[in-house]
Amino acid sequence: CTFLALGTHFGKVFLLDVQGNVTQKFEISSVKINQISLDESGEHVGICSEDGKVQVFGLYTREGFHENFDCPIKVVALHPQFTRSNYKQFVTGGTKLLLYERNWLNRWKTSVLHEGEGVITNIHWRANLIAWANNVGVKIYDISTKQRITNVLRDNVSLRPDMYPCSLCWKDNTTLIVGWGTSIKICAVKERNPTEMRDLPSRYVEIVSAFETEFFISGLAPLNSDQMVMMLVCIYIEGPTTEEEFRARPRLDIIQPLPESCEEISSDALTVRNFQDNECRDYRLEHSEGESLFYIISPKDIVVAKERDQDDHIDWLLEKKKYEEALMAAEISFKNIKRHEVQKIGMAYINHLVEKGDYDSAARKCQKVLGKNMDLWENEVYRFKTIGQLKAISQYLPRGDLRLRPAIYEMILHEFLKTDYEGFATLIREWPGELYNNMAIVQAVIDHLKKDPTNRTLLTTLAELYTYDQRYDRALEIYLRLRHKDVYQLIHKHNLFSSIEDKIVLLMDFDKEKAVDMLLDNEDKISTDRVVEELGDRPELLHVYLHKLFKRDHHKGQKYHERQIGLYAEYDRPNLLPFLRDSTHCPLEKALEICQQRNFVEETVFLLSRMGNCRRALQMIMEELGDVDKAIEFAKEQDDAELWEDLISYSIDKPPFITGLLNNIGTHVDPILLIHRIKEGMEIPNLRDSLVKILQDYNLQILLREGCKKILVADSLSLLQKMHRTQMRGVRVDEENICESCHATILPSDMAKPFSVVVFHCRHMFHKECLPSPGTIHGVQFCNICSAKRRGPGSGILEMKK
């Protein structure tokens, strides 16, 4: 909601609604309130008073900053986004400009931004920029870069700054308006070119307008306007005693700044109580961001000003011949204005533009003004034809559900075809074909091509006309002749694959990537064999096609994999090794032959290892590549003791290789074997570090073994306990179970008689008398059936006979 915060000379702050009713009251001090600042949300307020009190608090929480200073604090300004937790900042002005910031510990930190130039009388904060005024001039501080970026000096130093205070207001985030005495300056904050920075701030201020007025300025505020920079100025004029009553009344003026002067737009004299006794410093002008409300504050009255209503505005715009703005305003207020009145304003505007010779603007306004009135549209078209400006109105003609007669569109197309081929082509692309007689336009284009048969624009346009007329074969012929980018779209859209089987090379010469993607996406229409046959004489194109085919599916073109080896070797070696790795249909002997002929070491190493000749592969790595890390990695992958022996033997007289081995083989080969074979006196780089790493690796292995042992013991104990609990459970025995020895029912028919049954954990059951003797371990009985299975065939029978 909108409210006013009003401070008094008696230290009280009142919150008023827009009707002037008091909604809240705060007792801040016993002396004059100097300044009140609200953040953009209206949830937090900053207040300072003549006795040095500064309070910043939430209107709904009262939590915040409360401090007493030993000097009067004249001004306070909150960060515009103060309500957000990341922007808890405000500044105060007395003899110093102080910045307060709340840190993450919820404590307030104070920084001095400026001092030593007298009392600070005004502060305005917008986005990251703080502007303040003192007796010397106006400064701007960039809070994001922590730099002061300007100093705008006071012009008329003869005026007392306490009697004629400085007025500041931000028009936007980078435009500051300064009013002081009788002068006004508009300052634009701009980014400095990085090449010019050196020790200078990253921004600078340019005075875009500066002028003197005939009155003293009491306040400034920006007026919402998109067309011109305007300001609302509250003034106080000192005049002769004979006219003091009139001259002393403050005025509310709207002015338009010019580079070195200003133009008065309107002026209204204000009547406030005791205005005869008021001075320039007794008036203030405040405005509400986002609303066209302005508040003129005097010691006894508050005057609320707002812009005139829309009807008054439209009348004024028409009077000033500002038709564009009048039309826009009328359309916004359409619900209050009849359609024919809007059209009347619009036609007056179109006539005005035609009289001025601004035909393009006049034609553009036809869309908005003429609407669905076909008669008005045709009248305007013939009017533009009469003045020779058919081109101007062509791009604004109706072309949707609302259409003119075909003759109108054909008249304009013929006009373009005579004078502007490019414009004609643009209209053909933009206009739906049903607006005009297509055959008539095709014939007209053919007639012009007889005079200029190689004109690319006309040929392209003719292809588009053929496409609309569904004569796709003729359109395709033209597109291929011109190598036009739309050829692929035409083929896809109208399924013209049968027409391009003998034009594959031509398509790939035009755009390989698009052509290959199209061919692979439509293998059912143009087979791989057909494509390979067509590209047989162009191996570089064939490689592009087969490479993409392989990327999509490693098995589809398997019969061409042998051929691809040579193609990769000739045109695309970086992808040869990935191809060899991924292909399962590539003849390894052929690949090895080609790679050895071309001395492709990495590819040869891979093929040798894949064919099982790992020792030769390792030898090539060591001798031709000289890459110990790669040799070690290869030996690790193969995990072959003979390879490690070969690697050690080759490296034993090469110190860099020995260093690499010491650093990497600790987990695969006992390093002692390598160390014992090093010759006495051989200088090995980084030997100490390598030995330290070996010891560290060994310690790590010991720790891992101990950790694994602890885990194994713990898991074994856990599983043993689980098995014990399982084996302690009871086993259900009923009349369905039988003795595994005599195969009789395990339970007797007469349950009253005593009987003995033995049940093993394997769930085999026996009558006690059917079991053989316990065996070699006294008191331990085993299941005869399970024991027989472990010992082999016939064991169970022997057991039963004992």
Highlighted features:
alpha+beta; Methylamine Dehydrogenase, Chain H; Serine Threonine Protein Phosphatase 5, Tetratricopeptide repeat; 21% strand; Vps41/Vps8; WD40/YVTN_repeat-like_dom_sf; zinc; protein transport; TPR-like_helical_dom_sf
Characterization of the model:
This protein has about 800 residues and is of the alpha+beta class. Among the domains are: about 1-120, Methylamine Dehydrogenase, Chain H; about 215-305, no CATH class; about 310-405, Serine Threonine Protein Phosphatase 5, Tetratricopeptide repeat. It is about 40% helix and about 20% strand. The chain has 29 helices and 28 strands. The chain has a four-stranded antiparallel beta sheet, with no helix packed on it. The chain has a four-stranded antiparallel beta sheet with strand order 8-9-10-11, with no helix packed on it. Helix 11 (about 455-470) packs antiparallel against helix 12 (about 470-480) and helix 28 (about 785-790) packs across helix 29 (about 795-800). The longest helix has about 40 residues, at about 685-725. Residues about 240-245 and about 795-800 have low confidence and may be disordered.
